[in-house]
Specification:
Blueprint lengths: L3 E7 L3 H12 L4 E4 L16 E2 L6 H15 L1 H5 L10 E2 L3 E4 L7 H9 L5 E3 L1 H7 L29 E4 L3 E3 L2 H14 L3 E3 L2 E9 L2 E9 L4 E11 L5 H8 L10 E11 L12 E4 L4 E6 L3 E6 L22 H14 L11 E8 L6 E4 L5 E5 L9 H16 L10 E4 L4 E4 L17
Parallel strand pairs: 1-2, 1-12, 2-9, 5-14, 12-19
Antiparallel strand pairs: 3-8, 4-8, 5-7, 6-7, 10-11, 11-12, 13-16, 13-17, 14-15, 15-16, 18-19, 20-21
Helix pairs in contact: 1-6, 1-9, 2-9
The structure holds flavin-adenine dinucleotide (FAD).
Protein backbone atom coordinates (compact mmCIF):
# COMPACT_ATOMS: atom_id res chain seq x y z
CA UNK A 1 0.00 0.00 0.00
CA UNK A 2 1.32 3.45 -0.92
CA UNK A 3 0.25 6.48 1.05
CA UNK A 4 1.27 10.06 0.28
CA UNK A 5 0.94 12.40 3.22
CA UNK A 6 1.94 16.00 3.82
CA UNK A 7 3.36 15.97 7.37
CA UNK A 8 3.89 13.08 9.77
CA UNK A 9 4.48 13.79 13.44
CA UNK A 10 6.03 10.78 15.17
CA UNK A 11 4.76 10.74 18.75
CA UNK A 12 1.47 11.74 20.33
CA UNK A 13 2.92 12.96 23.60
CA UNK A 14 2.30 16.47 24.82
CA UNK A 15 4.93 17.79 22.40
CA UNK A 16 3.82 15.88 19.29
CA UNK A 17 0.15 16.75 19.85
CA UNK A 18 1.00 20.46 20.24
CA UNK A 19 3.15 20.36 17.10
CA UNK A 20 0.38 18.65 15.14
CA UNK A 21 -2.19 21.21 16.31
CA UNK A 22 -0.09 24.18 15.23
CA UNK A 23 0.92 22.67 11.88
CA UNK A 24 -2.75 22.01 11.12
CA UNK A 25 -3.58 25.59 12.12
CA UNK A 26 -1.03 26.62 9.46
CA UNK A 27 -3.06 24.69 6.92
CA UNK A 28 -0.92 21.52 6.74
CA UNK A 29 -2.42 18.03 6.42
CA UNK A 30 -1.05 16.23 9.45
CA UNK A 31 -0.88 12.56 10.41
CA UNK A 32 0.30 11.67 13.94
CA UNK A 33 1.65 8.17 14.50
CA UNK A 34 2.15 6.66 17.95
CA UNK A 35 3.01 3.15 19.07
CA UNK A 36 0.88 3.54 22.19
CA UNK A 37 -2.90 3.13 22.23
CA UNK A 38 -3.72 6.82 22.76
CA UNK A 39 -2.24 10.29 23.33
CA UNK A 40 0.06 11.11 26.23
CA UNK A 41 0.87 7.52 27.20
CA UNK A 42 4.67 7.87 26.81
CA UNK A 43 6.88 9.90 29.14
CA UNK A 44 4.18 12.60 29.35
CA UNK A 45 2.07 10.30 31.52
CA UNK A 46 4.77 10.29 34.25
CA UNK A 47 5.35 14.03 34.23
CA UNK A 48 5.20 16.05 37.44
CA UNK A 49 3.77 18.74 35.11
CA UNK A 50 5.27 21.67 37.00
CA UNK A 51 4.99 24.97 35.16
CA UNK A 52 7.76 27.28 36.40
CA UNK A 53 9.54 30.17 34.76
CA UNK A 54 12.94 30.30 36.49
CA UNK A 55 15.61 29.30 34.03
CA UNK A 56 19.32 29.99 33.65
CA UNK A 57 18.82 31.01 30.02
CA UNK A 58 16.58 33.84 28.89
CA UNK A 59 15.17 32.00 25.84
CA UNK A 60 13.96 29.12 27.99
CA UNK A 61 12.36 31.56 30.43
CA UNK A 62 10.63 33.31 27.51
CA UNK A 63 9.40 29.96 26.21
CA UNK A 64 8.17 28.80 29.60
CA UNK A 65 6.40 32.10 30.33
CA UNK A 66 4.69 32.18 26.94
CA UNK A 67 3.59 28.56 27.33
CA UNK A 68 2.57 29.23 30.94
CA UNK A 69 0.11 31.90 29.83
CA UNK A 70 -1.45 29.33 27.52
CA UNK A 71 -1.76 26.77 30.33
CA UNK A 72 -3.47 29.47 32.42
CA UNK A 73 -6.03 30.03 29.65
CA UNK A 74 -6.20 26.48 28.32
CA UNK A 75 -9.66 26.49 26.63
CA UNK A 76 -8.82 29.74 24.83
CA UNK A 77 -5.49 28.35 23.61
CA UNK A 78 -7.08 25.09 22.44
CA UNK A 79 -10.13 26.71 20.90
CA UNK A 80 -12.14 23.60 21.87
CA UNK A 81 -13.57 21.96 24.95
CA UNK A 82 -12.76 18.27 25.19
CA UNK A 83 -15.84 16.22 26.20
CA UNK A 84 -13.61 13.81 28.18
CA UNK A 85 -12.64 16.70 30.51
CA UNK A 86 -10.07 19.47 30.53
CA UNK A 87 -6.71 19.52 32.26
CA UNK A 88 -6.45 22.42 34.69
CA UNK A 89 -3.64 24.77 35.57
CA UNK A 90 -3.30 24.90 39.37
CA UNK A 91 -1.69 28.21 40.33
CA UNK A 92 0.20 27.21 43.48
CA UNK A 93 3.36 29.30 42.94
CA UNK A 94 6.94 28.07 42.98
CA UNK A 95 9.39 28.48 45.83
CA UNK A 96 13.05 28.18 44.89
CA UNK A 97 15.35 27.70 47.87
CA UNK A 98 18.98 28.74 47.78
CA UNK A 99 21.46 25.93 47.32
CA UNK A 100 24.67 24.79 45.74
CA UNK A 101 22.94 23.15 42.75
CA UNK A 102 21.55 26.43 41.47
CA UNK A 103 22.66 30.02 41.31
CA UNK A 104 19.72 32.38 41.76
CA UNK A 105 21.28 35.35 39.95
CA UNK A 106 20.53 34.51 36.30
CA UNK A 107 17.00 33.11 36.83
CA UNK A 108 16.08 36.15 38.93
CA UNK A 109 17.43 38.55 36.31
CA UNK A 110 15.39 36.81 33.57
CA UNK A 111 12.22 36.82 35.66
CA UNK A 112 12.62 40.57 36.17
CA UNK A 113 13.45 41.22 32.52
CA UNK A 114 10.23 39.48 31.53
CA UNK A 115 8.13 41.25 34.16
CA UNK A 116 7.21 37.96 35.89
CA UNK A 117 6.18 38.55 39.51
CA UNK A 118 8.93 37.43 41.87
CA UNK A 119 9.75 38.06 45.52
CA UNK A 120 12.98 37.35 47.38
CA UNK A 121 12.41 35.80 50.82
CA UNK A 122 14.67 35.53 53.84
CA UNK A 123 14.84 32.24 55.73
CA UNK A 124 12.53 33.75 58.39
CA UNK A 125 10.00 34.68 55.70
CA UNK A 126 10.16 31.17 54.21
CA UNK A 127 9.50 29.68 57.65
CA UNK A 128 6.59 32.00 58.39
CA UNK A 129 4.89 31.61 54.99
CA UNK A 130 5.50 27.86 54.68
CA UNK A 131 5.65 26.55 58.24
CA UNK A 132 6.04 22.94 57.02
CA UNK A 133 9.40 23.85 55.44
CA UNK A 134 12.56 24.03 57.52
CA UNK A 135 14.83 26.61 55.82
CA UNK A 136 18.01 25.18 57.33
CA UNK A 137 21.14 24.77 55.24
CA UNK A 138 21.42 20.95 55.00
CA UNK A 139 23.55 20.59 51.89
CA UNK A 140 25.60 19.87 49.99
CA UNK A 141 23.47 16.82 49.20
CA UNK A 142 24.82 13.39 50.07
CA UNK A 143 23.53 9.81 50.22
CA UNK A 144 21.96 8.40 53.37
CA UNK A 145 24.98 6.17 54.10
CA UNK A 146 27.17 9.27 54.36
CA UNK A 147 27.28 10.63 57.92
CA UNK A 148 27.15 14.12 56.45
CA UNK A 149 23.54 13.39 55.48
CA UNK A 150 22.57 13.56 59.14
CA UNK A 151 24.87 16.43 60.12
CA UNK A 152 23.55 19.49 61.94
CA UNK A 153 22.51 22.37 59.65
CA UNK A 154 25.25 24.85 58.88
CA UNK A 155 22.99 27.91 58.72
CA UNK A 156 19.79 28.97 57.04
CA UNK A 157 18.75 29.63 53.46
CA UNK A 158 16.55 32.16 51.73
CA UNK A 159 14.51 31.68 48.59
CA UNK A 160 12.65 33.38 45.80
CA UNK A 161 8.99 32.96 45.08
CA UNK A 162 7.04 33.22 41.81
CA UNK A 163 3.31 33.27 42.56
CA UNK A 164 2.20 32.66 38.95
CA UNK A 165 3.86 29.25 38.65
CA UNK A 166 1.89 26.06 39.22
CA UNK A 167 1.23 22.65 37.77
CA UNK A 168 -1.14 20.99 35.35
CA UNK A 169 -3.64 18.69 37.07
CA UNK A 170 -3.28 15.73 34.69
CA UNK A 171 -0.48 15.65 32.07
CA UNK A 172 -1.93 12.75 30.12
CA UNK A 173 -5.31 14.48 29.90
CA UNK A 174 -3.52 17.64 28.73
CA UNK A 175 -2.04 15.67 25.81
CA UNK A 176 -5.48 14.22 25.10
CA UNK A 177 -6.93 17.77 25.10
CA UNK A 178 -4.29 18.80 22.55
CA UNK A 179 -5.07 15.73 20.45
CA UNK A 180 -8.78 16.55 20.58
CA UNK A 181 -8.10 20.16 19.49
CA UNK A 182 -5.80 18.89 16.74
CA UNK A 183 -8.39 16.41 15.49
CA UNK A 184 -10.96 19.20 15.39
CA UNK A 185 -8.75 21.05 12.86
CA UNK A 186 -8.26 17.96 10.74
CA UNK A 187 -5.29 16.09 12.23
CA UNK A 188 -5.48 12.32 11.78
CA UNK A 189 -4.11 10.00 14.46
CA UNK A 190 -2.94 6.42 14.03
CA UNK A 191 -2.32 4.70 17.34
CA UNK A 192 -0.80 1.29 18.06
CA UNK A 193 1.37 1.98 15.02
CA UNK A 194 5.15 2.13 15.13
CA UNK A 195 7.64 3.77 12.79
CA UNK A 196 10.29 1.12 12.10
CA UNK A 197 12.24 2.51 9.17
CA UNK A 198 13.07 5.77 7.45
CA UNK A 199 13.78 6.10 3.74
CA UNK A 200 15.99 8.86 2.26
CA UNK A 201 16.27 9.99 -1.29
CA UNK A 202 18.80 12.54 -2.46
CA UNK A 203 19.21 14.16 0.98
CA UNK A 204 15.49 14.30 1.70
CA UNK A 205 13.22 12.07 3.77
CA UNK A 206 11.01 10.13 1.38
CA UNK A 207 9.31 7.30 3.27
CA UNK A 208 8.48 5.79 6.63
CA UNK A 209 7.95 2.13 7.19
CA UNK A 210 5.18 1.66 9.74
CA UNK A 211 3.90 -1.45 11.51
CA UNK A 212 0.53 -1.87 13.17
CA UNK A 213 0.00 -4.00 16.26
CA UNK A 214 -1.63 -6.75 14.17
CA UNK A 215 1.69 -7.20 12.35
CA UNK A 216 0.89 -5.38 9.08
CA UNK A 217 3.67 -3.23 7.63
CA UNK A 218 3.04 -0.30 5.33
CA UNK A 219 5.15 2.34 3.66
CA UNK A 220 3.97 5.94 3.69
CA UNK A 221 5.48 8.88 1.84
CA UNK A 222 5.47 12.09 3.84
CA UNK A 223 6.86 15.36 2.57
CA UNK A 224 7.83 16.43 6.07
CA UNK A 225 8.44 14.51 9.30
CA UNK A 226 8.69 15.84 12.86
CA UNK A 227 10.41 13.51 15.30
CA UNK A 228 8.58 14.15 18.60
CA UNK A 229 9.21 10.69 19.99
CA UNK A 230 10.35 11.78 23.47
CA UNK A 231 12.89 9.36 24.97
CA UNK A 232 12.60 7.13 21.87
CA UNK A 233 13.80 10.05 19.69
CA UNK A 234 17.43 8.95 19.37
CA UNK A 235 16.43 5.56 17.91
CA UNK A 236 14.47 7.35 15.19
CA UNK A 237 17.29 9.81 14.50
CA UNK A 238 19.62 6.86 14.06
CA UNK A 239 17.19 5.29 11.56
CA UNK A 240 17.08 8.59 9.67
CA UNK A 241 20.89 8.88 9.84
CA UNK A 242 20.75 12.52 10.86
CA UNK A 243 23.08 12.57 13.86
CA UNK A 244 26.26 13.52 11.98
CA UNK A 245 26.05 17.24 12.83
CA UNK A 246 24.43 17.10 16.28
CA UNK A 247 26.65 18.63 18.99
CA UNK A 248 24.76 16.75 21.71
CA UNK A 249 23.22 13.34 22.04
CA UNK A 250 19.73 12.65 23.37
CA UNK A 251 19.55 9.71 25.76
CA UNK A 252 16.81 8.03 27.81
CA UNK A 253 17.37 8.66 31.52
CA UNK A 254 15.25 6.83 34.09
CA UNK A 255 13.57 8.91 36.78
CA UNK A 256 11.66 7.92 39.89
CA UNK A 257 9.19 10.30 41.49
CA UNK A 258 7.89 9.18 44.87
CA UNK A 259 4.61 10.19 46.46
CA UNK A 260 3.99 10.76 50.14
CA UNK A 261 1.10 12.02 52.23
CA UNK A 262 1.17 15.84 52.27
CA UNK A 263 2.24 17.12 55.70
CA UNK A 264 -0.15 19.31 57.68
CA UNK A 265 -0.26 22.77 56.11
CA UNK A 266 0.98 21.62 52.72
CA UNK A 267 -2.12 20.36 50.89
CA UNK A 268 -2.91 22.36 47.78
CA UNK A 269 -5.72 24.41 49.42
CA UNK A 270 -3.83 24.60 52.66
CA UNK A 271 -0.58 26.44 51.89
CA UNK A 272 1.06 23.82 49.66
CA UNK A 273 3.22 24.93 46.77
CA UNK A 274 5.87 23.69 44.37
CA UNK A 275 9.41 23.73 45.75
CA UNK A 276 12.84 23.47 44.14
CA UNK A 277 15.45 22.56 46.74
CA UNK A 278 18.94 22.92 45.22
CA UNK A 279 20.37 22.72 48.75
CA UNK A 280 19.24 19.13 49.39
CA UNK A 281 18.60 18.02 45.79
CA UNK A 282 14.88 17.42 45.58
CA UNK A 283 11.93 19.12 44.01
CA UNK A 284 8.50 18.55 45.46
CA UNK A 285 5.01 19.80 45.04
CA UNK A 286 1.63 19.47 46.61
CA UNK A 287 -0.66 17.35 44.46
CA UNK A 288 -4.27 17.92 45.42
CA UNK A 289 -5.27 18.02 49.06
CA UNK A 290 -3.42 15.03 50.42
CA UNK A 291 -0.36 14.13 48.37
CA UNK A 292 3.16 15.34 47.84
CA UNK A 293 5.23 14.38 44.78
CA UNK A 294 9.00 14.29 45.30
CA UNK A 295 11.54 14.06 42.49
CA UNK A 296 15.30 14.43 42.31
CA UNK A 297 17.61 17.19 41.06
CA UNK A 298 20.45 14.83 40.06
CA UNK A 299 23.20 16.01 42.43
CA UNK A 300 26.68 14.65 41.62
CA UNK A 301 26.36 11.97 44.36
CA UNK A 302 23.34 10.35 42.66
CA UNK A 303 24.22 8.01 39.78
CA UNK A 304 22.36 8.74 36.55
CA UNK A 305 20.51 5.70 35.20
CA UNK A 306 20.81 5.94 31.42
CA UNK A 307 18.92 3.30 29.46
CA UNK A 308 19.50 1.82 26.01
CA UNK A 309 15.74 2.06 25.46
CA UNK A 310 12.95 3.70 27.49
CA UNK A 311 11.24 0.31 27.35
CA UNK A 312 13.94 -0.99 29.74
CA UNK A 313 12.77 1.22 32.62
CA UNK A 314 11.75 -0.63 35.77
CA UNK A 315 8.04 -0.59 36.52
CA UNK A 316 8.11 0.39 40.17
CA UNK A 317 9.94 2.84 42.38
CA UNK A 318 12.93 1.10 43.97
CA UNK A 319 13.32 0.75 47.73
CA UNK A 320 16.63 2.63 47.48
CA UNK A 321 15.17 5.70 45.77
CA UNK A 322 12.19 5.63 48.09
CA UNK A 323 14.44 5.73 51.14
CA UNK A 324 16.78 8.39 49.77
CA UNK A 325 14.16 10.82 48.51
CA UNK A 326 11.76 10.39 51.42
CA UNK A 327 14.56 11.00 53.92
CA UNK A 328 15.81 14.05 52.02
CA UNK A 329 12.27 15.34 52.05
CA UNK A 330 11.85 14.55 55.73
CA UNK A 331 14.91 16.62 56.58
CA UNK A 332 13.40 19.56 54.69
CA UNK A 333 9.88 18.93 56.05
CA UNK A 334 10.27 17.46 59.53
CA UNK A 335 6.51 16.94 59.91
CA UNK A 336 6.32 14.64 56.85
CA UNK A 337 5.27 11.07 57.59
CA UNK A 338 6.85 8.29 55.58
CA UNK A 339 4.70 5.22 54.92
CA UNK A 340 6.43 1.83 54.93
CA UNK A 341 5.40 0.93 51.37
CA UNK A 342 7.14 2.76 48.49
CA UNK A 343 4.73 4.66 46.26
CA UNK A 344 5.43 6.66 43.14
CA UNK A 345 5.96 6.58 39.44
CA UNK A 346 8.83 5.70 37.13
CA UNK A 347 9.34 7.78 34.00
CA UNK A 348 12.04 8.48 31.45
CA UNK A 349 13.59 11.81 30.47
CA UNK A 350 15.03 12.40 27.00
CA UNK A 351 18.21 14.22 28.04
CA UNK A 352 20.74 16.24 26.12
CA UNK A 353 24.22 16.87 27.50
CA UNK A 354 23.38 20.45 28.48
CA UNK A 355 19.77 19.67 29.44
CA UNK A 356 18.49 22.11 26.81
CA UNK A 357 15.92 20.72 24.33
CA UNK A 358 16.53 20.52 20.59
CA UNK A 359 13.88 22.22 18.49
CA UNK A 360 15.43 22.26 15.05
CA UNK A 361 15.71 21.05 11.48
CA UNK A 362 18.34 18.40 10.67
CA UNK A 363 20.81 17.69 7.87
CA UNK A 364 18.11 15.53 6.21
CA UNK A 365 15.73 17.83 4.37
CA UNK A 366 12.17 17.44 5.62
CA UNK A 367 13.25 15.83 8.96
CA UNK A 368 12.64 18.11 11.98
CA UNK A 369 13.07 17.39 15.67
CA UNK A 370 11.30 18.44 18.87
CA UNK A 371 13.31 16.29 21.27
CA UNK A 372 15.71 16.28 24.21
CA UNK A 373 13.20 17.93 26.53
CA UNK A 374 15.39 16.85 29.45
CA UNK A 375 12.79 16.61 32.19
CA UNK A 376 11.34 20.08 31.77
CA UNK A 377 9.57 20.09 28.40
CA UNK A 378 6.01 19.49 29.53
CA UNK A 379 5.45 23.10 30.45
CA UNK A 380 6.88 24.29 27.12
CA UNK A 381 4.58 22.24 24.89
CA UNK A 382 1.85 24.79 24.11
CA UNK A 383 4.45 27.09 22.59
CA UNK A 384 6.78 24.43 21.16
CA UNK A 385 4.02 23.59 18.69
CA UNK A 386 4.15 27.12 17.36
CA UNK A 387 7.97 27.18 17.29
CA UNK A 388 8.09 24.03 15.17
CA UNK A 389 5.28 25.18 12.87
CA UNK A 390 7.13 28.47 12.27
CA UNK A 391 10.39 26.60 11.70
CA UNK A 392 8.88 24.15 9.19
CA UNK A 393 7.22 26.98 7.32
CA UNK A 394 10.42 29.06 7.14
CA UNK A 395 12.68 26.16 6.12
CA UNK A 396 10.28 24.88 3.49
CA UNK A 397 10.01 28.39 2.08
CA UNK A 398 13.78 28.20 1.51
CA UNK A 399 15.12 29.94 4.63
CA UNK A 400 18.60 28.77 5.73
CA UNK A 401 17.83 28.28 9.43
CA UNK A 402 21.30 26.89 10.18
CA UNK A 403 23.05 30.00 8.91
CA UNK A 404 20.42 32.45 10.13
CA UNK A 405 18.29 30.87 12.89
CA UNK A 406 14.75 32.20 12.99
CA UNK A 407 13.23 34.13 15.87
CA UNK A 408 9.62 33.44 16.75
CA UNK A 409 7.30 36.05 18.30
CA UNK A 410 5.72 34.94 21.55
CA UNK A 411 2.40 36.60 20.89
CA UNK A 412 0.72 36.17 24.28
CA UNK A 413 3.54 37.85 26.22
CA UNK A 414 5.04 40.16 23.61
CA UNK A 415 8.49 38.53 23.71
CA UNK A 416 10.60 36.69 21.14
CA UNK A 417 12.24 33.25 21.22
CA UNK A 418 15.60 32.96 19.46
CA UNK A 419 15.61 29.43 18.13
CA UNK A 420 19.40 29.38 17.90
CA UNK A 421 19.30 28.51 21.61
CA UNK A 422 17.65 25.18 20.77
CA UNK A 423 19.85 24.33 17.79
CA UNK A 424 21.34 20.84 17.43
CA UNK A 425 24.57 22.64 16.50
CA UNK A 426 24.72 25.02 19.49
CA UNK A 427 27.84 25.20 21.63
CA UNK A 428 27.12 22.59 24.31
CA UNK A 429 28.35 23.01 27.89
CA UNK A 430 27.77 19.58 29.47
CA UNK A 431 25.91 19.48 32.78
CA UNK A 432 25.52 16.51 35.13
CA UNK A 433 21.86 17.11 36.00
CA UNK A 434 19.12 19.67 35.81
CA UNK A 435 20.12 21.36 39.05
C1 LIG B 1 9.20 11.69 35.89
C2 LIG B 1 9.10 12.92 35.03
C3 LIG B 1 8.81 14.15 35.61
C4 LIG B 1 8.74 15.29 34.81
N1 LIG B 1 8.37 16.47 35.37
C5 LIG B 1 8.23 17.58 34.59
C6 LIG B 1 7.77 18.80 35.14
O1 LIG B 1 7.48 18.87 36.34
N2 LIG B 1 7.63 19.86 34.32
C7 LIG B 1 7.94 19.80 32.99
O2 LIG B 1 7.82 20.82 32.30
N3 LIG B 1 8.39 18.65 32.44
C8 LIG B 1 8.52 17.55 33.20
N4 LIG B 1 8.93 16.38 32.66
C9 LIG B 1 9.31 16.34 31.25
C10 LIG B 1 8.10 16.22 30.38
O3 LIG B 1 7.15 15.36 30.93
C11 LIG B 1 8.54 15.75 29.01
O4 LIG B 1 9.50 16.68 28.52
C12 LIG B 1 7.40 15.68 28.02
O5 LIG B 1 6.29 15.00 28.55
C13 LIG B 1 7.89 14.98 26.76
O6 LIG B 1 6.80 14.86 25.89
P1 LIG B 1 7.02 14.24 24.48
O7 LIG B 1 5.74 14.39 23.76
O8 LIG B 1 8.25 14.80 23.86
O9 LIG B 1 7.38 12.69 24.76
P2 LIG B 1 6.45 11.46 25.10
O10 LIG B 1 5.33 11.82 25.97
O11 LIG B 1 7.35 10.38 25.57
O12 LIG B 1 5.84 11.08 23.70
C14 LIG B 1 6.59 10.45 22.70
C15 LIG B 1 5.68 9.48 22.01
O13 LIG B 1 6.36 8.95 20.88
C16 LIG B 1 5.90 7.66 20.68
N5 LIG B 1 6.90 6.94 19.88
C17 LIG B 1 8.19 6.76 20.19
N6 LIG B 1 8.83 6.07 19.22
C18 LIG B 1 7.90 5.81 18.29
C19 LIG B 1 7.93 5.14 17.05
N7 LIG B 1 9.05 4.58 16.57
N8 LIG B 1 6.78 5.03 16.34
C20 LIG B 1 5.63 5.58 16.81
N9 LIG B 1 5.55 6.24 17.99
C21 LIG B 1 6.67 6.35 18.70
C22 LIG B 1 5.75 7.09 22.07
O14 LIG B 1 4.81 6.03 22.07
C23 LIG B 1 5.28 8.30 22.87
O15 LIG B 1 3.89 8.32 23.09
C24 LIG B 1 9.00 15.21 33.43
C25 LIG B 1 9.28 13.98 32.85
C26 LIG B 1 9.32 12.83 33.63
C27 LIG B 1 9.61 11.51 32.98
Amino acid sequence: MQDNVDVVVIGAGVIGCAVALELAREGRQVLVIDRHAGPGLGSTSASSAIVRYHYDHLDEAVLAWEAGRRWMDWPRYLGTVDPQGMAEFVRCGALVLDGALMDREAPLAHLRTLGIAVEELTAEEVASRFPAIDPSRLGPPTRTDDEQFWAEPTGTIGAFWTPDAGYVSDPQLAAANLAHAAASVGVEFRFATEVRGVGRDDGRVCSLSIATSDGRTTEIHPRTVVNAAGPWSSALNRMAEVLDDFNTSTRPLMQEVISLPAPQGFGIDDGGTSVTDPDFATYFRAHGAHTLLVGGMEPPCDPLVHLDSPDDAVEQVSAETWELQSLRLARRMPSATIPSQPRGIVGVYDVTEDWIPIYDRTSLDGWFVAIGTSGHGFKQAPFVGELIAALVQAVEAGHDHDADPIEVPASWTGNTVRMAHFSRRRHVVPQYGMG
